[in-house]
Fold this sequence. Notes:
Elements: E1 7-10, H1 14-25, E2 30-33
Parallel strand pairs: 1-2
Amino acid sequence: xxxxxDVLVVGAGPAGSSAARAAAEGGAExxxxxxxxxxxxxxxxxxxxxxxxxxxxxxEMPEEQLIWEIEGISFHVDDI
Length: 80
């Protein structure tokens, strides 16, 4: 069995998901695959995005989905 498409996206991470969505919304016949059975389980990247990106999202962000705001982050590395 052969399946044809314009765009094949392998990997359902943030980049792959964005690429597949953009291709499909642009009219390309798109197939989107990932090695995992369920996308986003377990959560891989804390699902955090910068607040400055919210106006550029291609969908409305429901207020109830905004769980908390991160005000900063710090990293501590020993022995470098």
